Amino acid sequence: MLEKFMNMDRRIIFMLVALVVIIPTLIPVRLPITVSEPTQKLYDYIEALPSGSTIIMAFDYGPSSLAEPEPMAKAVMQHCFSKGVKVIGMTLYPNTPTLADKLMQRIAAENNAVYGEDYVFLGYRPGALQVILGMGTDISSVFETDYEKTAIAEIPMMENITNYDQIDLLLDLASGSTTETWIIYANTRYGLKIAAGVTAVIIAQMYPYLQSGQLVGMMPGYLGAAEYEKLLNAPGDGTVGLNTASFAHLLIIGLVILGNIAFFIHQRREA
Amino acid sequence: MEVFGIWVAAFLTLCIYSFLYRDNPFYRFAEHLFVGISVGYLIVIGIHQGVIPLTWEPLSKAMSALWTEIIGETTPETRQALWGLFKIIPIAIGLLFFARLSPRHTWLIRIPIAILIGFGAGAAIPNMLQANIFKQTHGTIAPFADINAGTLSTWDTFGAVLMVVGVMCTLTYFFFSVEHRGPINWLSKVGIAFLMIGFGAAFGNTVMGRVALMIHRVGFLINEWLGSFGALF
User: Fold this and answer.
1) Mean pLDDT, residues B144-170 taken together
2) Cβ contact A248–B215 (<8 Å)
3) Neighbours of B178 (CB within 10 A)
4) Nearest-CA distance from B176 to chain A in Å?
5) To the nearest whole number, what is the mean pLDDT of chain B?
6) A51 min Cα distance to partner chain B (Å)
7) Is the ipTM of this complex over 0.95?
8) Do residues A138 and A154 lie in contact, with contact meaning Cβ atoms separated by under 8 Å?
9) How many CB atoms lie within 10 A of CB A176?
10) Residue B190 — very low, low, confident or very high, per pLDDT cuts 50/70/90?
11) Strand pairing partners for A57?
């Protein structure tokens, strides 16, 4: 029995994981969500911004990792538009402009936001370091036009925005190391307030920056998106994803415990 | 057209997941297609969002401004556009990367590499020291001022002390100038425990991230792909 368990075909585990993901997707279950401190801090910061403030949202993730950052982007943009906070979108990833542009247009349409007045999408420019440093001096020297090739000077909401001095927050939606780059160059050098919405893979790397105050807040993975949606009282993709993920996590925890028990019994028998 | 896109995406998703059963031609087809399209897309985006707006457009404007200067039809706009000619300098330096293709001129590549390294190091070192050493050290010590002022709860005080213990022990583990014996050995062993907890948290988060990706694709297959059957049949 133990031998069979130890040598179990890994495809059985794949099937189990598939089942615990498919079943809650077909039959949605709403689990309770408690808002953690990092998400609450981000929400409170944006909530405290006066109408007419401007934030930058950096869509620094690729198509292969959009599962977690997209619900975060939706929730934060919804919050900003409801408060009259303007949003400048951009990306340091070359394969993201189309995705980010479409996402911004969709969320803006749902919230009756007007392009050029409530939000703008600048697109992508190569060289992350040069882009971050250049924007600290003059945004229009890096992005002479927006993604649709309209000159920055002709966009109404960019009239009074020259550099980071007029930006109240930068939210980096990241699946890689870009948040650290924003902190090192934009926060340290220019004093720009930074917040992060990161995929679960890099959550652990971000906590030291949160503790030291270099990040004003953080949304950690699906959990962060779901928490933000709860604060807005608008359940969305993050809530659905987190509920489903919870079942998968329970299965994985169970398998880890079972695997360890089997390993130690096997080791004792061999001894 | 949208339904066609959904079906292509669903087919490729299933091709990729078929690898979980075993390696097969469908998986390899999807993998090669992904790599090819990604590279092609990156090149096109690089040209349209980088080369054209940052080099081609300012240079072509500057050249036409230069022509109007030559024929004597100067305006303030053409004077301003003439500044674009300065972009020839970085473009020329950048083009030196292609000197690698000629064995006789390959030494020229040292110029752009030297500039890149010089700029990178100059920009990175002070900012990284500030962000990753000074501010992190400050963040580790700062809670003790709150403890001294009596404004920190018991739980947060425990957290602050634990953090300092963790930092000191983990740094001891990486301190090789002293032989790890006696108390140093014990401290470094505690450091290993902190490292293991850190790696465990990172691994757990990685699993969470991977599960999230799967949930997204399963959601797509169930909601959008299966949902598109209604539009077809």
Assistant:
1) 92
2) yes
3) 9
4) 25
5) 91
6) 31
7) no
8) no
9) 17
10) very high
11) A89, A171
